[in-house]
Amino acid sequence: MPVLLYSDKAHMRKICFHIQKGGVGKTSVTGNVAALLAREGKKTLVVDCDPQANLSSWLCTKKPEYDIASVFTGQADAEAAIQQIGGHLSILPVISIGSGLKQWAETELVRSPRALEFFISDLEKLNFDYALFDCSPSLSLLERSVISCMDELINPLSAEFFSIDGVESFANELHHIERSNRITIKNDKIVLNLLNRSFTRHRAFLEELEKLRYRIFVIPQDSRIAECQIARKSLADFAPKAKSLPFFMELVHSIMEEQEK
């Protein structure tokens, strides 16, 4: 795996929204945060590392000729596989049917332990300000390799009882990744997704979450978040007056402020 040192001054800031649990909205958070960074004038790349390709199905404006598996297998370079979505936003997709990503990760990655390091290095040459990574909710060798290359990990959660256990479990796994690679990865933010404050259990969960060491960014329950994916648009493009949009912007501004320090 890569041996990289965390640096706030890296030209391309690399962020992954990840937790070992599906259904928490990590893909919607990743895509909408990336779109808002791009709207703020930041050259932003979203990298789909999930073989299910939900992010690519949502944001790709045309069927990809190449995908991230094509890059890993040497069929195309990263620049050829990247698809511009519009403005400052681009995506390095996964092809939903026929991609070799899962097979490559399961058979070849173990023989190429620095593959993700070299891949990230090639992306940094393309002068993006931010690269946001969407992975599957597992912690296989692929996810661990991606995480070991990140500057920051942000944990998306849903307001349910077992989520706090998931945060603690992830923190332990992240510690093992850091220790084995001799790196430090920033991990001090939680995105509590689709919170409904009218629900007693949601309010109680938020109170418990606020006792932890993390900064909590709340995204309120908003049907527009799901609807924008059906429309294949970011939330800002689909519903610029959506009630959840200012809450996404709070997270985006926090990310930008830290990068500019």
Question: Can you offer a commentary on this structure?
Answer:
By secondary structure, the protein is α/β, with parallel strands linked by helices. The chain has twelve helices and eight strands. The chain has one domain: P-loop containing nucleotide triphosphate hydrolases (Rossmann fold, 3-Layer(aba) Sandwich), CATH 3.40.50.300. An eight-stranded mixed β-sheet has the order 3-4-2-5-1-6-7-8, sandwiched between helices. The longest helix is centred in the middle third of the chain and has 19 residues, at 163-181. It starts with 12 loop residues before the first strand and ends with a helix.
Please give a handful of descriptors for the protein shown.
single chain; 261 residues; alpha/beta; Rossmann fold; eight-stranded mixed β-sheet; 12 helices; 8 strands; 42% helix; disordered N terminus
Which CATH architecture is right?
3-Layer(aba) Sandwich
Helix content: 40-55%
Specify the CATH class.
Answer: Alpha Beta
Strand content: 15-25%
- Pick out the low-confidence regions: 1-10
Radius of gyration: 17 Å
Shape: globular
Number of strands: 8
How many domains would you count in the coordinates? 1
Instruction: Note the total helix count.
Output: 12
The CATH topology: Rossmann fold
**What is the mean predicted local confidence, pLDDT?**
93
Describe the sheet with the most strands: 8 strands, mixed
According to CATH, the homologous superfamily is P-loop containing nucleotide triphosphate hydrolases
Topology as a string of helices (H) and strands (E): EHEHHHEEHHEHEHEHEHHH
Strand order in space, largest sheet = 3-4-2-5-1-6-7-8
Structural class of the secondary elements?
alpha/beta
User: What distance lies between the first and last C-alpha atoms, to the nearest angstrom?
Assistant: 29 Å
